[in-house]
Specification:
heterotrimer; A mainly beta; B mainly beta; C mainly beta; A: seven-stranded mixed β-sheet; four-stranded antiparallel β-sheet; 1 helix; 4% helix; 56% strand; globular; B: mainly beta; 11 strands; elongated
């Protein structure tokens, strides 16, 4: 037997992750945000398995809130330990159950219970809820003539959504500052600084509208976001094909989001900033 | 004859009265309520598949290859999300390990493996935005690096993708 | 005979009474998928019919076809077995009925019938989030 054939024989016995048709497995989290008030202290998280295999799900809470990096991309800053100045509710959130198996094409509701410490000042407190779905062991086969050599890669998908615990009557607001924008390629790229007012996160949208000198809307966009402390997000509007000239960019922070019912969101007066931009 | 006729009239009259009262309707309403929310869906479409691997010969699966791992994220249109990954350095079979490295990623608003955004999957956040129809397609590839004396066996490991919604 | 006719008149005046015991509540539902409330669920609609019908009567449900709210109307569907009736307050017993058709009811003397109703809603993907609603009306008719 030549070295090559020996290697080939060895290879036939060694398979890593062979190509095996795998049916899609998915976890649907029914809401991107959960609001719990102090009167009931309970909420729920509906999880739906739209796949054809069971999924094992675990639910947990941690502290974190969105921030922006130096170029305006949002990411979640997480905290393993928090001090008393941070309004984090994760320590008080329990899920029932914490682990569950959801059968295919079915749904389950996880109850969330908040047990805050006594004497908690009224305001809004935040947490992140993570639903981790283990998509079952995937058996992968080797070559057709392999002798029962198997390899598996367990895939876990985690979805992280926001939780808001409201005690009393928290209020929110937002300050818009430092709006600036410029054309980059075929987009108008802008940034603005949003700073939360009040004692509750501003959860809403940043609407951007570009108008020409006649007031006609030439481009617009909407960025869903949550401002917990401050945020300086980057946004972009398509401007390909627009004539050269001066335009007005208006950016407005509004207490509405297309993915959340208005009843969940604390309302505040919209705030707006405008700036002149030039399309070269 | 006269008496029979009078009784009949009385019966008929009473019957009419009864019929009028007994056909009275009663009704009650029940409301139907529902609160619609936009769900977030993460679907694993494909596993990462290396196929046959030869000892001492690295085998790469590019994001454009049919064996690349594929995930689909669904949610509200044009929503920003973050992706983070926990990836195995090795997968194991008993006391034997098989090294994996050079992880590569690609995400796009349409189901394509080029022309979108390439990224290196890691624990650091990768920013992405769902498409105008609320979708994001993510592909992940890597390289398996078996040693020249790599033992046959069943190798396993864990891979995690976390999608963060703001 | 006159006494018998008088008794007939008194009994027919005690028409059925209908009480809504519970509304049909879907709660929070995700768009892009179908959510069903079973008639045996604690979220199903429930009514109670009490009274006396001499020779029986009917009940009928006026069913909505959509739920209305901040977005486009959402279709709601009631299967032919979405209704349940029972003389005991237990939706797991009794018999199923088609909520789209009028149903006979016979309550000889001071009887009670409980009714339950389930349904399914299917908001399309990207349905505008918010509260949606409709009304189901149960009507009874006594007949001689």
């Amino acid at each position: 037997m030549t070295p090559f054939s020996v290697a080939a024989a060895a290879a036939s016995l060694l398979t890593a992750l062979a190509a095996v048709p795998v049916t899609a497995q998915s976890l649907m989290v029914a809401s991107p945000a959960i609001v719990i008030d102090d009167r009931t202290r309970t909420g729920s998280l509906t999880l739906i398995n739209d796949g054809i295999e069971p999924v094992e799900v675990s639910v947990s809470a941690f502290c974190g809130h969105p921030v922006t990096d130096s170029i305006g991309h949002m990411f979640l800053r997480t905290f393993e330990t928090v001090d008393d100045t941070m309004p984090c509710a994760a320590r008080w959130v329990q899920s029932f159950p914490r682990r569950l198996t959801i059968t295919p094409k079915s749904r389950a509701t996880v109850r969330l219970l908040v047990t805050p410490p006594a004497g908690l000042p009224p305001r809004e407190y935040w947490a992140r809820i993570m639903a981790a779905a283990k998509a079952g062991q995937v058996a992968v086969g080797g070559l057709a003539d392999s002798s029962a050599i198997q390899a598996t890669l367990s895939l876990e998908i985690r979805s992280v959504v926001g939780l808001f615990y409201r005690k009393g009557t928290p209020r929110t607001g937002v300050l818009l500052e430092r709006l600036r924008a410029g054309v980059v390629g075929d987009s108008l790229v802008g940034r603005t600084l949003l700073t939360r007012q009040g004692d509750a996160a501003f959860v809403g949208s940043l609407r951007a509208v570009l108008r020409d000198s006649s007031g006609t809307v030439r481009s617009e966009g909407r960025l869903p976001l949550g401002v917990y402390y401050s945020l300086e997000p980057r946004f972009a509007l398509p401007v390909a094909g627009l004539p050269r000239g001066r335009y007005e960019l208006a950016v407005e922070a509004v207490s509405s989001r297309p993915d959340l019912p208005s009843g969940l969101l604390l309302q505040t007066v919209p705030v707006q900033q405008t700036v002149e931009v030039i399309v070269p | 004859m006269f008496r029979v006729l009078r009784v009949t009239a009385l019966v008929l009259g009473t019957t009419a009265l009864v019929a009028a009262r007994a056909s009275a309707q009663n009704n009650a309403s029940a409301t139907v309520t529902a609160t619609v929310q936009q769900p977030i869906t993460v679907t694993k479409n494909n596993d990462l598949s290396f196929g046959s691997v030869f000892p001492g010969v690295n085998k790469s699966v590019a994001v454009t290859a049919g064996g690349a791992a594929k995930f689909t994220v669904g949610g509200q249109a044009s929503t920003p999300v973050n992706l983070t990954f926990s990836l195995p350095v090795t997968i194991a079979s008993g006391g034997n390990t098989l090294a994996l490295n050079t992880w590569a990623g690609h995400h796009a608003a349409t189901d394509v493996t080029s022309g979108g955004t390439t990224f290196t999957p890691s624990a650091s956040a990768t920013s992405a935005t769902l498409s105008g129809s609320g979708a994001l397609f993510v592909y992940v590839g890597a390289t398996a690096a078996p040693t020249t004396t790599q033992a046959a066996g069943s190798y396993s490991g864990d891979m995690t993708m976390t999608v963060v919604y703001f | 005979m006159l006494a018998a006719l008088t008794l007939l008149l008194v009994q027919a005046e005690a028409a059925g009474q209908v009480t809504t015991l519970r509304n049909l509540t879907f709660g929070i539902i995700p768009s892009g998928t179908t959510t069903t409330v079973l008639k045996t669920s604690a979220n199903s609609a429930q009514w109670r019919i009490t009274g006396t019908f001499l020779l029986g009567g009917t009940f009928a449900l006026t069913l909505p076809t959509t739920l209305t709210g901040p977005g486009t109307a959402i279709p709601i569907a009631f299967s032919t077995t979405a209704g349940q009736r029972n003389t005991a307050n237990n939706p797991n017993g009794g018999t199923s009925f088609n909520p789209h058709t009028s149903q006979p009811v016979t309550l000889v003397t001071l009887g009670t019938i409980f009714l339950w109703l389930g349904a399914s809603v299917s908001p399309p993907p990207n349905q505008a989030p918010g509260n949606y609603g409709a009304t189901v009306v149960l009507t009874t008719t006594g007949m001689l």
